[in-house]
């Protein structure tokens, strides 16, 4: 202490400088498992354009959010949104979690900008976000192209707090959303203060305080949620319209574990807004509708011509080209091209087009080439010839094949092209059911399947088609409830059946979508489905017995 004195009438005033060292513990909220350090890099945001075949010139775009949430993540999203200049693109997130405060900020930013969100993984083509100075997409309509999948995607720990900010919030059957208790890490700091004060009438009066230095003094953690933190999270979830059940699951799950919330529970807790997958926000068919989705972006075509954008295109009574209904039905063996399933990917039979009198013969020929293999049928059709539909249904029933309403997007080339060749008997493709139709006679083909699936995003319609006794006998043969035939008779015109009605009448066997038959993760099950055909192991030939 260095005193300075002066006489000032009635009182002595003592001025002094004092240096004081104080140890402080500052809380940092994290929500991640404590079973080891995370090696996932910080979250990055990239605007991606769909690379689906036949997508251009009007394709959907989205924001890929991949990585760990840290303190600087909100500023990165803010920068991305600023560059979009008001465009509302959905967020496709894949994250193990991270900083809670940052997750809350991200959620509020997403809600403020009225963005949708889905748990999904973006698989990039050509340029990758981590590649510097990539010129593969130079001169094209976007810096990054890709496809979004829910297979293998995760949103864990603090990520569900970010996810809660979405207007529409979707987690597919093959995505993973998990929560656990929040970990509060207290960072100790040793601070050296310099305080200036003076003594007036025997009392100390502080003039100023300044931090001279800071030193790390270690840290400690607590896994108990404090009342302050609980109050903060409860208020945030209420602000986002999420029920209290999410917070209760978080509190009940140890920080060293992750508890996946089942889809039914997420619906009940209002954590998700529908039973959809990431396709709801990213599939290419969104831009082929009469009123395209807001995340569709039109680019200039030949000679600078463009078609109306999502905002400017007038409403019109047109149907999306979901099944190539103008041509005869085509049957093709397809192998899933999702990189997440390689090398053991599912295969299926793509059946798209109008049902003509040639369709049963074509299907029978294809089944003959498969021998005893049972591949599910993925069908998309606006109907056609009734007797032919019944014949197809009986073939499918006889072979005990599963069937789902969906279409196949071919990845490398379209089988109709003269130079498009199958690899090992199959074409590469992806199955999508968003907006796909199965009308009139097509519904009777579906009735022949062992498992019959029509996802919530697909459409199936029925109407009286004549030959009542023949149709009734066919449905009895397929063990379909007589109530379905009665429902058909009561409808003077073609009408779409809702999922609950189809399930109640026995036309479908479950609420699942086509992913239950063709999803990239189904071949990872212990009991592999019949349509999984893995590649032989690298040493299979060496281990094989010698042959003369």
Q: Could you outline the blueprint of secondary structure elements for this entry?
A:
Layout: E1 4-8, E2 11-31, E3 44-50, E4 58-66, H1 73-84, E5 91-94, E6 98-99, H2 100-112, E7 117-119, E8 121-125, E9 145-149, E10 154-156, H3 159-163, E11 169-170, E12 176-179, E13 183-200, E14 203-222, H4 227-239, H5 245-252, E15 259-260, H6 263-268, H7 279-282, E16 296-298, E17 330-336, E18 347-352, H8 359-370, E19 377-380, H9 386-398, E20 403-405, E21 407-410, E22 427-432, E23 437-439, H10 441-446, E24 452-453, E25 459-462, H11 468-477, H12 482-489, E26 495-496, H13 499-505, H14 515-518, H15 540-543
Parallel strand pairs: 3-9, 4-5, 5-7, 7-11, 10-12, 17-22, 18-19, 19-20, 20-24, 23-25
Antiparallel strand pairs: 1-2, 2-6, 2-13, 3-4, 4-16, 8-9, 12-15, 13-14, 17-18, 21-22, 25-26
Structure description:
There is one protein chain. With 548 residues, this protein is of the alpha/beta class. 23% of the residues lie in helices and 28% in strands. α1 packs parallel to α2 and α8 runs parallel beside α9. The longest helix has 13 residues. The chain starts with a strand and ends in a 5-residue tail after the last helix. The N terminus and C terminus are likely disordered.
Q: How many strands in all? A: 26
Overall pLDDT: 80
How much helical structure, as a percent, in the residues?
10-25%
The low-confidence parts are: 1-15, 25-29, 32-38, 302-326, 536-548
Determine the strand fraction and express it as a percent band.
Answer: 25-35%
- Global Rg: 31 Å
Structural class designation = alpha/beta
Number of helices: 15
Sheet with the most strands, sense and barrel status: 8 strands, mixed
- State the shape: elongated
Distance between the termini: 99 Å
């Amino acid at each position: 202490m260095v005193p300075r004195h002066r006489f000032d009438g009635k009182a002595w005033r003592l001025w002094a400088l004092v240096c004081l060292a104080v140890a402080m513990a500052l809380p940092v909220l994290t929500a991640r498992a404590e079973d080891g350090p995370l090696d996932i890099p910080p979250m990055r945001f990239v605007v991606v354009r769909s690379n689906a075949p036949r997508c251009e010139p009007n394709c959907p775009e989205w924001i890929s959010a991949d990585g760990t949430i840290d303190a600087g993540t909100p500023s990165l999203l803010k920068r991305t949104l600023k560059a979009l200049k008001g465009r509302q693109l959905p967020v496709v997130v894949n994250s193990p979690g991270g900083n809670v405060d940052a997750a809350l900020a991200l959620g509020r930013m997403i809600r403020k900008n009225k963005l949708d969100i889905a748990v999904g993984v973006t698989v990039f083509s050509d340029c990758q976000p981590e590649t510097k100075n990539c010129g593969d997409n130079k001169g094209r309509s976007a810096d990054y192209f890709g496809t979004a999948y829910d297979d293998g995607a995760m949103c864990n720990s603090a990520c569900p707090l970010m996810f809660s900010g979405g207007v529409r919030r979707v987690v597919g059957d093959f995505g993973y959303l998990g929560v656990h208790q929040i970990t509060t890490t207290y960072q100790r700091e040793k601070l050296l203060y310099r305080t200036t004060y003076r003594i007036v009438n025997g009392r100390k009066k502080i003039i100023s305080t300044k931090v001279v230095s800071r030193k790390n003094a270690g840290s400690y953690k607590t896994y108990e949620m404090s009342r302050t933190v609980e109050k903060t999270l409860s208020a945030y979830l209420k602000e986002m319209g999420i029920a209290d059940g999410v917070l209760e699951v978080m509190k009940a799950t140890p920080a060293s574990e992750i508890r996946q919330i089942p889809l039914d529970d997420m619906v009940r807790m209002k954590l998700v807004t529908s039973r959809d997958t990431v396709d709801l926000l990213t599939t290419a068919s969104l831009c082929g509708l009469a009123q395209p989705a807001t995340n569709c972006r039109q680019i200039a075509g030949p000679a600078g011509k463009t078609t109306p954008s999502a905002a400017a295109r007038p409403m019109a009574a047109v149907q999306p080209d979901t099944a190539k209904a103008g041509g005869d039905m085509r049957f093709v063996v397809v192998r899933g091209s999702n990189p997440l399933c390689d090398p053991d990917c599912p295969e299926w039979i793509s059946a798209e087009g109008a049902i003509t009198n040639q369709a049963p013969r074509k299907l029978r020929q294809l089944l003959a080439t498969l021998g005893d293999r049972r591949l599910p049928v993925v069908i998309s059709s606006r109907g056609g010839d009734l007797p032919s539909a019944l014949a197809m249904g009986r073939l499918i029933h006889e072979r005990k094949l599963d069937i789902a309403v969906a279409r196949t997007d071919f990845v490398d080339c379209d089988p109709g092209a003269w130079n498009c060749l199958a690899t090992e008997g199959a074409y590469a493709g992806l199955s999508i059911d968003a907006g796909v139709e199965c009308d009139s006679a097509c519904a009777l083909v579906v009735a022949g399947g062992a498992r019959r699936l029509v996802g919530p995003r697909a459409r199936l319609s029925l109407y009286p088609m004549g030959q009542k006794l023949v149709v009734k006998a066919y449905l009895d043969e397929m063990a379909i409830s007589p109530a379905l035939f009665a429902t058909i008779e009561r409808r003077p015109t073609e009408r779409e059946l809702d999922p609950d009605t189809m399930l109640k009448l026995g036309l479908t066997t479950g609420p699942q979508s086509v992913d239950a038959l063709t999803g990239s993760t189904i071949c990872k099950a212990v009991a592999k489905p019949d349509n999984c055909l893995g590649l032989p192991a690298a040493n299979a030939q060496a281990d094989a017995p010698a042959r003369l």
